[in-house]
Design goal:
The structure is a homotetramer. Chain A is an alpha/beta fold and about 325 residues long. In chain A, about 15% of the residues lie in helices and about 35% in strands. The longest helix of chain A is centred in the last third of the chain and has 14 residues.
Amino acid sequence: MTHDPERRRDLAHVGPLELYTPVLEESRDFFVNQLALREVGRDADSIYLHTWDDYLSWTIRLIRRERAGVGTTFVRAASAAAFERVRAEIELAGLVDGIDAGVRGLGEVVRFHDPDGHPMGLYWEAGWYVPDETDTPALKNQAAAFPGRGANVRRLDHVNYLTKDVPGTSRFLADVLGARCTERIVTDEGEDAAIWFNLGNKSYDLVYTQDWTGANGRLHHLAFATDTREDILRAADVMLEAGIHIETGPHKHAIQQTFFLYVWEPGGNRIELCNAGARLILAPDWKTISWTAAERAKGQAWGLKTIDTFHTHGTPVLPVE
Amino acid sequence: MTHDPERRRDLAHVGPLELYTPVLEESRDFFVNQLALREVGRDADSIYLHTWDDYLSWTIRLIRRERAGVGTTFVRAASAAAFERVRAEIELAGLVDGIDAGVRGLGEVVRFHDPDGHPMGLYWEAGWYVPDETDTPALKNQAAAFPGRGANVRRLDHVNYLTKDVPGTSRFLADVLGARCTERIVTDEGEDAAIWFNLGNKSYDLVYTQDWTGANGRLHHLAFATDTREDILRAADVMLEAGIHIETGPHKHAIQQTFFLYVWEPGGNRIELCNAGARLILAPDWKTISWTAAERAKGQAWGLKTIDTFHTHGTPVLPVE
Amino acid sequence: MTHDPERRRDLAHVGPLELYTPVLEESRDFFVNQLALREVGRDADSIYLHTWDDYLSWTIRLIRRERAGVGTTFVRAASAAAFERVRAEIELAGLVDGIDAGVRGLGEVVRFHDPDGHPMGLYWEAGWYVPDETDTPALKNQAAAFPGRGANVRRLDHVNYLTKDVPGTSRFLADVLGARCTERIVTDEGEDAAIWFNLGNKSYDLVYTQDWTGANGRLHHLAFATDTREDILRAADVMLEAGIHIETGPHKHAIQQTFFLYVWEPGGNRIELCNAGARLILAPDWKTISWTAAERAKGQAWGLKTIDTFHTHGTPVLPVE
Amino acid sequence: MTHDPERRRDLAHVGPLELYTPVLEESRDFFVNQLALREVGRDADSIYLHTWDDYLSWTIRLIRRERAGVGTTFVRAASAAAFERVRAEIELAGLVDGIDAGVRGLGEVVRFHDPDGHPMGLYWEAGWYVPDETDTPALKNQAAAFPGRGANVRRLDHVNYLTKDVPGTSRFLADVLGARCTERIVTDEGEDAAIWFNLGNKSYDLVYTQDWTGANGRLHHLAFATDTREDILRAADVMLEAGIHIETGPHKHAIQQTFFLYVWEPGGNRIELCNAGARLILAPDWKTISWTAAERAKGQAWGLKTIDTFHTHGTPVLPVE
């Protein structure tokens, strides 16, 4: 499966994004103290947080909900014309849920959902982050001051959703959003069990994994990028001291070769810290890498067996039948 | 100066590239032993080398010449249609030098030159690297085996050319190649002294700096990307042991925030090892960062004064009048 | 259990050391290519190897044997007088096996054995490493040139032996060798299951773990120190490409907080690459840290469960009853 | 000049230490926010600070003074008997200033001074650090919780004093304190210009450099150890954002091969962050490394020229004649 280089790249990147948590303040403290995000706004039931090198006015919004999970993922169009083209594709697919002009820091948002029901929002116009006197960076080519705290995550990296229909979601990503599949896991029956799609040169931005429960709209994890692998090793010590549950890592994935650490934030959502080194997908005709069940069974790059909860924990957490 | 998001991104990346050297074998040994490239071919007067994660069949070609310098820089179009669009722009600009179907590993190449005379080649069709039994990677999403040697450079990153006409070159990059200016140095007279342009999400791929000698077609440096800053610290020890001239670094640039090491390969060409951490330009409407002469005078990010030879050494080396 | 500061420190360090392997050349290639040791001598059935910053003339000697395992561990006295004092203690304990003046690079060696039967050699006089023109270091305060290859291990760090009598070995280390116990694992019955002893400021040099088979004289692992944790992460990629069995890691031990990677060299011996950061035992009255079985059950520092083979693999490998 | 292995090692380590500053609170904020020390006590004119892995109850005491500089350096004896032996040597040398039983956290202190007049204190009895509920470490073999903030310095590493009499100070270190010279800079006239002495396995603990002003009792710098070189690279970004003056680095010294960063704390004292990797002096008969003026002129390990202020700035700052 080779990428179609002629297909226009109409989406720039993923973000900002909404995350649900039953313990709003505890989750806020985790993102601020352990990941080094900054609180940039709040209302009755939500808090807006910003990573130090995100050009947008906010990176994630924590929303108080009874159960953890992912809210709306906003995706930015690559241009005003691209916004109209993707909007047309979404309408054609009958996935539009409405238009919203009231999202903080963004212009008009076309609200829609993926085939699995995850809420999404397409936008073009966006306000840029304006630091105040306490977080003005020393270097003008950076969004905000370097925090030098905890994991120091630079920016949002990707979202990994659970879905009960991987093939359908794959068609949606390719045909409606124009994303490209860089890697995938194929079952012995020849069906996709997990798919990694990218929008630009990053090796992936949107990931979908088969939901073992058959439920809809759940989250596997949300990931933030760090500058170095050392940031991730340090983060592990930071999580240990803070009593944050470390699920697995630091280690390296064979798939996409990402150096990773997975923790569960206080609300229960799985958060990944990731570093890709200098790896980028520069080939416009990249050939999708397919991993077999046997290859997947080998575990991570350096032989670590994949931890069981990786296949049993998602948010919202569902009652076991 | 804000990027024009509507301008189509018709170039995928820079590379492969030709480099001239008066000491072919010594230069080859440097790239193989200290940077960890692999020799993949040679003819009477040149040697083809490959970095371990370049999907193309070769990364740089060392050519025996009386004087060091840069040869042809090949740039890959983003698609077959993009190839035709850029080809038309180059013809319109009257910069075409001819068509070449004989470049190793590439399909038809449109040979042209930038306004300063640096030879370039536009291509779309390209053969991919095929490892042999001695460098087949353990992970199938990697071009070749990880060498674990010296600086372990992953891939070609960017080229920094010297030019006597920065403004003219800037128009060429924007209007003919459709590249985007992410950062620049502006003189007190308001003229560009150096410009950094990118083609995708990397913060820069092509850089032009004012040539203090007024000569044409010279090279400031060629850069390779490493996965970590630690690779660059280790590289410094490797260069020290090998007796390679370390010009400056390891340190961090304020401009583009690149962590760097500059050395002179045996042939005299300046080679940079660089690491950008997780920094990428994801904003489709990125606003060009302008640095003043005063800001530049501050030196590098952490206060290191820019070394004099950085403003006096280029290749080919010109006789001092 | 607090250290006795009055007890004189009569041993300087562990090393050199002999290692048995059934595949001499394959083991040699592993230590040279993946760990960056240098071959400095050989005879009919053995090869001498040197780490780049070992002041001694050789670091380990690989000896061809039918079965893998540890040979003689040589320990250097802190002075000529210290040599006599320790020699007297060994004689008093009735552990002397003889005197040997024929060990390469060492002066007179008092051969003895620990209570479990591991052969050891006490020496004072030693020749220093003399680099030749191919490995003379650029910096005169270093034993040999920095190899910049694979794991780049700087020096031998410690030896972890298996023993059927931990308490007896503990008394031997304290009373005969004058070593100090920095950390230990205590069973619910109050008995030591594993003990870490040091000779100077390193947190440990000699480790003994209960041998689950009840056998004598076996090896759990031999460890080499790297300068950074990044060296160990890179080493994991190097081992992966070389097809070397990675048993566990890279990860961090709770005990001693060592960042580690365990691999099995071609001969079957377990080799650890370790980094302690800036951690040293500077307190002369250090209080031994005791870990309970419950604490040990928590696994490694960041929650990784200890791999089963860590409790079932030792060399020589014994036939399962 | 070879070490005398028979000379007993009667001093365990350097620290705690007093530092003078004209801006007490600003200096305190630097050590707490940028270096990650913790405030553990204060009185009218001083503040006690602790590094996260110092087993002692405090690491440095900031004292308000009109001018910056170093106060008393306390050195711990290796045992009660060692305390008496060194005390006798100090008395024999006629350097005793008095006995003090009132130093926070320490037992009886023999106050004395080096030949240059720097105040010192010898002690044996010392109280250990007791973390409270807010900084109890997750791992029991660590003094306090890992802060994960700024430079995260683990412990005090060494002190570099300025002296007008290097040879006299050298005799004092060797004959009175029993320290050993690991490296030195020798002038063309054959005199020591700078000397590095160690007490245990660290490559150095006490350093004296010729004071170009001919003054007495001044400080060149105080150094703290970090676990990795990455901690030091990050620290540079942290200092940049905090507006702390970065004098030189990050870079690597040829002498002792220390990876370093030098900054001036708000009070004016030069502070070094250092990392030695896995380098230790394990040879009991280490041969002192002598560097010539010519070798020193080469600059740092990777060719960086030594910055001028390194030879002109010391504390207290003296009026230029």
